[in-house]
């Protein structure tokens, strides 16, 4: 992928989350089977993650398959499982070379056993790596994640606090997303990282995911950099904090 130049002085988000929407519609608009869009989207995903890491992003979380997606026609779901079976090992090899830890977030019990094995193998092979983190959300739902976390706390007899709850989420160990990008024209979270994205900057693109390029990612980062993240504070407070650093 050709590198697009980000302007000097741009703030790079530490963690970018991406809702990779529009793969099936991209294919249908070209009179191709929806599965062709998912294959193209998989390749685009690898390119954009690599590009993000080269730009200084430390963590990327991609929404690859939601629990709701599992209700799609059996043929499409089986095609997605086959994509994991045939190409997830390649993804793991590439990112292990980048010193990237790979984590699969979601309810893996909902996936076929051989697909689970491929995913858990990638996790195990990369668990010692520390430079970058790639979270792949599969069979993931934000509400289900929160219910699971609360139940874990109840089982431990713990009172739930914000910090304690964060440690019980799938994403424990990485900061919340600074920037959340959604492609494909839709403007909603679709049950993705509901707790973690409370203060994320949201960026929506009309482009279908296979058409979302490095240049588009740079535009999203530049937009993110131009925003003031107040976290509930006033502009004056943020200015004072900056001066005190």
Model description:
- With 245 residues, this protein is α/β, with parallel strands linked by helices.
- It has a single domain, classed as Undecaprenyl pyrophosphate synthetase (3-Layer(aba) Sandwich), CATH 3.40.1180.10.
- 45% of the residues lie in helices and 15% in strands.
- It contains 8 helices and 6 strands.
- It has helices at residues 23-28, 34-54, 74-97, 113-126, 142-156, 162-168, 214-226, 235-244; strands at 15-19, 59-66, 100-105, 132-140, 179-182, 201-204.
- It has a 6-stranded parallel beta sheet with strand order 3-4-2-1-5-6, sandwiched between helices.
- α4 links the parallel β3 (100-105) and β4.
- α2 runs parallel beside α3, α3 (74-97) packs parallel to α4 and α5 (142-156) crosses α6 (162-168).
- The radius of gyration is 18 Å and the shape is globular.
Quick synopsis:
By secondary structure, this protein is α/β, with parallel strands linked by helices. It has helices at 23-28, 34-54, 74-97, 113-126, 142-156, 162-168, 214-226, 235-244; strands spanning 15-19, 59-66, 100-105, 132-140, 179-182, 201-204. Helix content is 45%, strand content 15%.
On the 0 to 100 scale, the average pLDDT is 92
Number of domains: 1
What profile does the largest beta sheet have?
Answer: 6 strands, parallel
CATH C-level name: Alpha Beta
Beta-strand percentage range: 5-15%
C-alpha end-to-end distance: 38 Å
Principal-axes shape call = globular
The named CATH superfamily: Decaprenyl diphosphate synthase-like
Estimated radius of gyration: 18 Å
Total strands: the figure is 6
Q: Could you say what the CATH architecture is? A: 3-Layer(aba) Sandwich
């Amino acid at each position: 992928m050709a590198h697009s130049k980000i302007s000097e002085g741009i703030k790079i988000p530490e963690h970018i989350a991406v809702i990779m929407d529009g793969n099936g519609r991209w294919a249908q608009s070209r009179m191709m089977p929806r599965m062709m869009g998912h294959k193209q989207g998989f390749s685009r995903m690898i390119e954009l993650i690599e590009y993000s890491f080269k730009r200084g992003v430390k963590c990327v979380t991609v929404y690859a398959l939601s629990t709701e997606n599992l209700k799609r026609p059996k043929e499409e779901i089986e095609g997605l499982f086959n994509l994991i079976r045939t190409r997830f090992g390649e993804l793991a090899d590439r990112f292990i070379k980048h010193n990237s830890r790979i984590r699969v977030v979601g309810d893996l019990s909902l996936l076929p056993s051989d697909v689970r094995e491929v995913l858990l193998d990638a996790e195990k092979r990369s668990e010692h790596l520390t430079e970058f983190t790639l979270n792949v959300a599969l069979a993931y739902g934000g509400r289900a994640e929160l219910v699971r976390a609360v139940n874990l706390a109840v089982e431990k007899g713990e009172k739930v606090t914000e910090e304690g709850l964060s440690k019980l989420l799938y994403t424990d160990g990485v900061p919340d997303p600074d920037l959340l990008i959604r492609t494909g024209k839709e403007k909603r979270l679709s049950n993705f990282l509901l707790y973690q994205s409370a203060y994320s900057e949201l960026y929506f693109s009309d482009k279908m995911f296979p058409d979302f390029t490095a240049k588009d990612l740079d535009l999203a980062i530049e937009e993110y950099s131009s925003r003031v993240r107040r976290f509930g504070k006033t502009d004056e407070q943020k200015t004072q904090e900056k001066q005190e650093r």
